[in-house]
């Protein structure tokens, strides 16, 4: 069952985020088979919101935590904190994953 991971960047870390962005994107591309969704959190004006969301298709919390730990953003010390939550697909890309009604 997938896990949703939300991260919050350390204050004043936009330069650190930009410094490691290319290797972070390479990491995501190399792990694309595990990714249901990923993206930066943004402020309403579209500027950086200081964190990320990941929905990773792995079996265990340990795998989700290992995924995050291997991310170049994490290795650079960008997140101040994160929360990992087990997640159940109901709808994704307009497709229902709910069981049929009896």
Automatic annotation (TrEMBL):
Coiled coil ranges: none
Residue ranges of domain YCII-related in the record: 1-84
Top-level taxon of the source organism: Bacteria
Chain segments annotated as transmembrane: none
PANTHER family: PROTEIN YCII
Family per record: Belongs to the YciI family.
Identification of the protein by name: YciI family protein
């Amino acid at each position: 069952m997938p896990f949703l991971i939300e991260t919050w960047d350390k204050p004043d870390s936009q330069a650190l985020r930009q410094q490691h962005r290319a290797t972070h994107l390479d990491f995501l591309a190399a792990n694309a088979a595990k990714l249901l969704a990923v993206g930066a959190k943004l402020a309403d004006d579209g500027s950086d919101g200081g964190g990320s969301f990941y929905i990773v298709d792995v079996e265990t919390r340990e795998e989700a935590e290992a995924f995050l730990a291997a991310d170049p953003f994490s290795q650079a010390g960008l997140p101040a904190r994160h929360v990992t939550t087990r997640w159940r697909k109901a709808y994704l890309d307009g497709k229902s994953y709910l069981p049929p009604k009896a």
